[in-house]
Design a protein that fits this description.
Elements (H helix, E strand, L loop, with lengths): L7 H6 L8 H14 L7 H9 L8
């Protein structure tokens, strides 16, 4: 049996704020990548990180 990459405890303790700003979303996704490997950062968030010269964890 393989262990899930989902860090359930982290997800339960760190909900994305309702109507999160772009800054809040970026910060949440960075913290998420540091604490849980359930999925890569993709889409708009990854594009914004690239535009800002930020390193995308796990990429």
């Amino acid at each position: 049996m393989t262990k899930s990459k989902l860090n359930r405890e982290w997800h339960l303790a760190h909900k994305m704020p309702a109507k999160a700003t772009l800054e809040q979303r970026l910060e949440w996704h960075l913290e998420h990548a540091r604490n849980c490997q359930c999925r890569p950062i993709t889409g708009q968030i990854a594009e914004e990180m690239k535009k800002r010269g930020m390193t995308i964890p796990g990429a």
